[in-house]
Design goal:
By secondary structure, the protein is of the alpha/beta class. It contains 8 helices and 12 strands. It has a single domain, classed as P-loop containing nucleotide triphosphate hydrolases (Rossmann fold, 3-Layer(aba) Sandwich), CATH 3.40.50. A hairpin with a 2-residue loop joins strand 4 and strand 5. Helix 5 runs parallel beside helix 6.
Length: about 250
């Protein structure tokens, strides 16, 4: 049985004459944490949008958990076991924490058309368990999301993904707008995912964070993957050289 959880072969996305992603060959193994880095417009987010079904690829293949897939949208990808934390967070401001964690997958005491009854107690209990598992501290889970700090909101989004990530979690710049303490909390959540064996793709511009958290670093430049390097066999200067184009070459997976 293969240990590969996600693989792309020749993944390509074009917007008219613009080649946003070109021939991306990528592998993520079970339990592995991989950082995807590159300058703005390098193709990182485009790559994630194809994998998660937000957009449909121009060409290429995607294999997830041993099967070739073609997700029609993020909901289908989520149902397959891929949880994603996008920069936009996708939280409902007027709802509390349990309602946000279970948004789109609500639990019901019974379902009878317009007379369906939500099981709010169970959702709240499981939310508290999820927050405890991910070490997320929210003083009052009954508070609407709009009343929370940016760091708390980010942690809720990550806790939601971490709670339901059965096979893969993807985080797109999870600490970009956070302070030092809030960033440390998110990084601790990521370490917890590693301990639980949940594979992860981390998109980040923060090289300190990348070297602290992942096993391998994949560099995108102008829509192409130009390097795949084990964290312990490279350094920040090396990564910057690939990002800026000083270095570049064929990428292979052993």
């Amino acid at each position: 049985m293969t240990d590969i959880i996600l693989e792309t072969r020749g993944l390509t996305k074009r917007y008219g004459g613009v080649h946003a992603l070109e021939d991306a060959n990528f592998i993520l193994r079970k339990g592995e944490h991989v950082a995807v880095v590159g300058d703005n417009g390098a193709g990182k987010s485009t790559f994630v949008r194809q994998v998660t079904g937000v957009e449909q690829r121009t060409s290429g293949q995607i294999f997830f958990d041993g099967q070739e897939v073609s997700h029609s949208g993020p909901l289908e990808a989520r149902e397959a076991g891929i949880e994603t934390v996008f920069q936009t967070l996708a939280l409902a401001d007027d709802l509390d924490v349990p309602s946000n964690l279970y948004l789109g997958r609500e639990l019901f005491k019974f379902r009878l058309g317009p007379f369906s009854w939500l099981d709010r107690r169970t959702m709240r209990e499981r939310t508290l368990e999820a927050l405890k598992t991910t070490a997320v501290k929210i003083p009052n889970v009954d508070n609407p999301i709009r009343n929370m700090s940016g760091g708390q909101r980010q942690c809720v989004a990550i806790a939601r993904a971490a709670a339901f990530a059965s096979k893969l979690i993807i985080m797109d710049e999870p600490t970009a707008a956070l302070g030092v303490q809030e960033t440390a909390q998110v990084e601790n959540i990521i370490r917890g995912l590693k301990e639980r064996g949940v594979p992860m793709i981390l998109i980040s511009h923060n090289l300190r964070q990348v070297f602290d958290l992942v096993d391998r670093i994949v560099v995108f430049r102008r829509g192409r993957i130009v390097a795949s390097l084990n964290r312990d066999e490279t350094d920040g200067n090396d990564i910057v050289s690939y990002i800026t184009g000083v270095k570049g070459g064929e990428v292979s997976y052993a």
